[in-house]
Write the structure tokens for this entry.
Amino acid sequence: MEHILLRDLDIPDIWQFDTYMANGGYDGLKKAVADHTPDEVIQIVMDSNLRGRGGAGFPTGRKWSFIPKDAEIKYVTVNADESEPGTFKDRQLLEKNPHQVLEGSLITAYAIQATAVYIYCRGEFWDLAHELEVRIEEARAANLLGENILGTDWSCDVHIHLGAGAYICGEESALLNSLQGLLGQPRVRPPFPAQHGGGLYYQPTVVNNVETLANVPWILLNGAEAYRSIGTPESPGPKIFCMSGHVEKPGNYELPLGITFRELIYEHAGGIPNGKELKAILPSGASGPVLVATDEVLDSPLTYESVEALGSTLGSASFILMDEDTDMVWAAAKMNHFFKHESCGKCTPCREGTFWLDRVYERLLRGEGTARDLTILENVPRQMQGVTLCALGDFAANPVLSTVTQFRAEYERYIQSPEPAAASNMPDAAR
Amino acid sequence: MAETVTITIDGQQFQVPKGINLVDAAKMSGTDIPVFCYHPKMDPVGMCRMCLVELGSVVTNRETGEPDVDDNGDPVVRWFPKLQTACTQTVSEGMVVRGATQRVRDARDDILEFILTSHPLDCPICDKGGECPLQNLTMAYGPGESRFVFDDKIRLDKHVPLGDLIYLDRERCIQCARCTRFCDEVVGDDVLAFHERGRRLQIVTISDPPFDTKFSGNTTDICPVGALTTADFRFGARPWELDEVPSICPHCPVGCNISASTRLDRDFGGKKVIKRIMPRQNEHVNEIWICDKGRFGHHHARAEERLTTPLLRRGDEWVAVDWDTAYSEIAGRLKKAGDNVAFLAGNNLSNEDLWELRKLAHRTSNTPRLGVWPAFMTGADAVAQAGVGTGTRLQDMGPDSAILVIASDFEEEAPVWWLQVKQAADRGAKVVVANGRPTKLDRYATEVVHYEYGDAVAVLNSFAARARSKNKIDADFTARVDGAAELEAELKGTRVPFADAAETLLDAEDLVIFAGGEGLTLDQHRELMQAAANLLLLTGHAGKPNNGLVPVWPGANLQGAFDLGFSAETTAALADQPPTVWFIGSADPAAEDAALVQSLANAEFVVVSTQFMTPTAAHANVILPAQSFAEREGTFTNGMRRVQRFYTAQGPVGDTLPEWRIYANIGARLGGDKPRISAALVMRDITQNVPRYAAMAYPALAAVEKQFPDVGGDDLYYGGTAYTNTGGLGIQWPANAEDESARLQVRPVQLDGYQIEGLFAVPVRVLYDRSTLFEQSEMMHTHVPEPFAEINNQDAAHIGIVDGEVIRLNVNGAQHLLTARVNGQAPAGVVLVPQLLSKTPIVIGPAACAIEKIGE
């Protein structure tokens, strides 16, 4: 089957403007502008049931429909701060099929009548961002962006902004703060980005993930019904699965939603190296709960709903596979350390919880863990869940909770003495 | 009361004002929702997560609009699945809150446990210990012991200077951002910020010089832990040792309510001493803020340089004498002097002092000369007519309001008013700033007017002309105003050079004018005040709250001096007809006015009551040691005519006496009554003799009422440390415009500017100076610049001088070496000369001058 998103796998030169144009490039935008009102574009995307590919799976068309029609200034912000461990799909799209992302953002901008598109690239994407600037100029030269696009009254420019390496800036409201030159910390919501006062420079703003936008031109050209025929009714369309960890053929795979874990892992990605058994799966990078690789899991379809039903989340579909030799305590410690490092520090439970857990894991891995530490590893993530300002605190709790409950025996191996250790709560001087 | 909504908190229904914050609403209803990051004077951020509650709303039937009820007849409530932060909620009809359930308690326990994990728990040595929100909430919530292993605690710097006034303890900081938000939102000074992220998130100062704001001390009050402490108080005392004494700041016309924290102190001979100054809540005056001059400018009260006994000049020497000797000497001289004596009242004498000084003067002469110092502003009659209405609160001014600030460097002269006007601008009030040069308030102005110095009166007068031509005259109101028709006729045809500014003011519903005295002669200032009254009375912006005139007097109680019969014109006349005997109460004219130095030197006899040996006191024949505001009771009348009490905070230094008693004692020697035994009785005399002060008896001035937000209680976490107002909110005397039966007067103003050829010097005022009292706070000396003059860029280039160069200023026949500042602030042809940066008088009013480059 031809790729819809990773078209570079079929047409290696698709990144070039001429090649892209020769292969139906910007026809989606042209069709949107020529044949549809902005509201019709929103309706088509709503009908397609395209769901956000950044992780939350929120219906994209509905998100667009929240933009107040009376707002004078509106923005589209492209979230290209791809930082989730194990996620590398947006990078391939931006590097190998950049015009499709641009086209998708411009269709979005047309749908909400935005005057500017801001692409927020993670700081490490600096080379990619420089290339993207050239692509933008190519599109501008063809009157596909800039003043009076395609001869209409509508003008819209595209700007690129580089982040400075903070994971939290992938969170949409922290991203908006960062884009505005403020400290990259999430905002209190409401107001949400789509509302007055909530978006970029406090104007109504649509924030969409790169992969989400890459779907949009195809939907405009082929229609909502054709799109819904791919995947499942609740989770339609193609999805890029990022395969990493203990996997024979790591990389990005564009497949329709609804295939099973087993098909993805064993048929497409070549299974587990060295004939090892698959032990655990992280379906959504470090953020989602770990799944034990049971047959029930492996035979489940990959849709937003079914992964949720298994107790995890599809998220951005960044699969990190762990074979039978993996030390789950070590893995959880690594993931928690990542969240401790990336917690913005704005709200108490996330700032203090990840720090506390990190100290406990350090002690555990040094072989100084106590039974009490195990209780803390069970309690502290629960104290963090549901009370943080943004989702990072919830994410951070996931790997700890899901491993401590599902791989408890591995944790117990790290505990030397079943009794609380000598390390007391008394200050040195008082001991 | 404004529109209300019904909310339910823990099963009880309350009516609360629509649109207020849920934490505030709960507080009003008597329910505590614990917070660390939320502060009622700032926008919510939802950071600390301490205020979690169960939140829901009553489900109403769409057709009937009535609440749905369940089988028991109770309203059906739709609950949020997750706990919500109360601080980020605005109350709405049908909101239901549960704050006392086990689920909520557990969540708060959890948050508190998190906050305490890396907190150093050094309460026994922490300045905040005893008045610490974290300490208190830990007693209310949180586990009894920590599960966090002590050795896992993060170790951070504990003595980080953020500038030289405030220290940061990074271990104690709980990252609530109250300090950064105070600087950003309330003050608008971009000086503090977060640095790093996660557990390394820390407060840093990003300005140069560090923590560069005049309001830094307030961050230590609102800090919910002991992370921010002042250089003044840190390690100085424990809060529970302190007695809080209500007081009034003696430094400027705002009249900030303060609390003097006192205790018996080894370093002060075991006697009571002020350990720190804290703001005291008065929502009509300073809300809960004070500036750093007020906070750190109290050291004069116990300075070693305080004069402690009466001093008599014997030749070139001072001889310490007892009070009787001093009184006899003075009484004898005053008897002989008759009309040939002048009385000069300083700007921070209390009303009681002023009253007794006035009585003494009347005993000396039938037509006594009663002058004030400083004497460059006048116009008390304009204030009496059109002064700002009683009940005015700058915090109530918003989109419908306009504020004109004219002829004042507002932040330097009245910092807390500046703060409040800045916040009014943030809320949408239209602010017009008019002066001869740019000032900091310009950045918040809707319209900026930079007139030529000398044209201030004409500019303000033209606004009234615009009111006439744009039909903004309030005919109903002017029916009460004598001279209105004549004035209108006179205004016809007046050119309006700043029409946009005029219309910005005239279009607003409420209008307040702050009038300073920068760049005006005394005669011009009288006209400026009249022009302000004219504008306000013609347009009906008088006689009601949030409308009227506020003078930016130099000093804490010039209003009181004017109210009690002292005048600036009298002072001005002394130059031409100097008296042979001077009686000076806590004023230091010799530090500001070279001409008066000569008069003092030529005088036969000079009496000075003062706390310190000043240049003026150096001319005295008798020096009377006076008490500071800390050692006695009294009242000040602020620039909004609010009479406010201050109380005795510490015992007397040496043999010092309150000045009212000193003056009364001298009066007694001249046949007057025995002195009253207390300031309260002096005030009783005032109430019986001065109609405007009839209501100002001490018990009335001490009255307090519940204020919103209710930050004065024991719940320190809500507002900050020590704001309880037990000393009284004070009473404003009503302006004539408020009495509907009173006739009011307007008149055309004299528009004469001044014509000075070539360069001329304009004295300006700076907050941090070397005025008598403030210079005793040594910790502030690094903030007081060396004497300087600001010179226009082109003028400087023409003369060939650069920024930072030492130049010679020739003015009034004297030469001064000053550091040149060439920073684009001074208009062409003008040299700005800050007052009181040294004890040498330079220039007291606009005067021709010359700048000389000093050769290499």
User: Anything to note?
Assistant: Chain B has five domains: 4-116, 151-241, 311-377+558-732, 380-551, 760-853. Chain B touches chain A at residues 44-50, 52, 82-83, 88, 107, 110-111, 113-115, 117-118, 145-152, 154, 174-175, 193-194, 196-201 (CB under 8 Å). Residues 522-538 of chain B form the longest helix (17 residues).
